[in-house]
Specification:
Layout lengths: L1 H16 L5 H21 L15 H7 L1 H28 L3 H10 L5 H4 L10 H9 E2 L2 H6 L4 E2 L17 H6 L11
Antiparallel strand pairs: 1-2
Helix pairs in contact: 1-2, 1-4
Length: 185
């Protein structure tokens, strides 16, 4: 009985942490709970045929008929996950991540493009301006040593995905002569 509460609680917690619900996510969360119930029923009925766990004989039937079990199946996971649910709801209300903001905009059928390209003060930026604001920045360690500017980009693409950019993708791709042999290392 207690293990059933643990399985349901863990599966629901995994569901709370899931950011993209696919058919496989549903299968993992709900299927795990259903598979445990089937296993519990089969395991408690196999003793006469297979001599293992004689103390489990008939346990599933007894547990499934007890209203205390069903009440606990609702209250125990709810009590265990209440803190996590409140924390996620509060954090998502007060300080949303970019992913959460985009998900909410998509759920309301609003274009999430405006949320994606904004600077720290909330002003809208195009992709090139967004990338350039973070490319050349003086770091505190470099300011004291020299006047050089260090590149601090931690992510990005090799070329812009922006249409009508300075260099188009086709120009970048066509700039390489693929008929010549590459030098070996």
């Amino acid at each position: 009985m207690v293990y059933t509460y643990v399985v349901v609680t863990v599966c629901l917690k995994a569901g709370m942490e899931t950011t993209a619900w696919t058919k496989f996510s549903h299968l993992a969360v709900w299927g795990s709970m259903a598979l445990w119930m089937v296993f519990f029923a089969v395991y408690s009925a196999i003793w006469p045929s297979i001599p293992i766990a004689p103390d489990m004989l008939g346990q599933a039937g007894s547990v499934m008929q007890c209203w205390h079990f069903w009440l606990g199946l609702i209250l125990v996971p709810a009590a265990c996950l209440l803190k996590d649910f409140a924390w996620n709801a509060g954090r998502r209300t007060v300080r949303k991540s970019l992913l959460e903001e985009v998900q909410e905009l998509e759920a309301r059928a609003v274009d999430p493009g405006a949320a994606v390209l904004r600077d720290a003060s909330g002003r809208s930026l195009n992709e090139r301006a967004h990338l350039l604001t973070r490319v050349f920045r003086k770091t505190p360690s470099s300011v004291g040593r020299s006047n050089s500017v260090q590149q601090t980009v931690s992510h990005g693409y090799a070329f812009s995905q922006e249409e009508h950019g300075v260099v188009s993708q086709s120009q970048v791709v066509r700039s390489y002569d693929t008929t010549r042999q590459r030098p070996s290392l």
